[in-house]
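In line with agreed milestones, work has continued on tokenised descriptions of protein folds. One protein thus recorded appears below exactly as we store it:

>
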Amino acid sequence: MEWQASNGNPTIINSKGEVNLNNLQTIAAFERARTWIGDISPPDATSFDEGKTFDTWMEGNAAFMRNWPYAYRASQEASWAAEGDKVGVALLPQGDGMNARHAATLGGWQLIVNAETRHKQKKAAIEFVRFLTQKETQKDLAIATGKLPVWNALYEDQTMLRELNFPKNLDLRESITNAVTRISPQLVESYPAISKAYFEEVHKLLKGEKPAEAAVRDIEIKLQQELSR
């Protein structure tokens, strides 16, 4: 998502529920990413999950890492980081396609109360979610873990910003405001299938099993089949 959005195509499914993928911006972004494998990224990077990526980084075996904001805070605790100012953070690179911009995927806290929860447990769960999402708790969690808060006002809290220690020229609030959402709201029920199709085809592309044009075409076909059900 970030690759294609940074190159000018920020959506997989547009607001009308139509597949919006097979275009020059997406193909160029995917092709660029394919060339990274075996060059600036190790050949086995296609098997890395978030944990493996973070561990490789923390062991000092990578020069760059794409991760969520918490990783910047955690990186400053690495043994090699203690030797000097060796950890930096920046916006993801902007592509060169039409409407290209710095783009990052919007994450979330995923605080959910199970619909099957009953009586006292349900009430307690709701109260716990309210506690975790209140302003002071969000501030405390941001300082303790590096995870960014959902409260807009906290991005003006100098104590929190000082503790997070992001570069002053990196506007965290703007980064979140301009973040890319992963799917349109009306297609929530189709998200697992759409995500799976997207992931599988991009993975084949990165492994060198098919060119970018074919990967984009095959994602489009799978998505259209899912949407027609």
Notes: The mean pLDDT is 91. The CA atoms of residues 100 and 197 lie 25 Å apart.
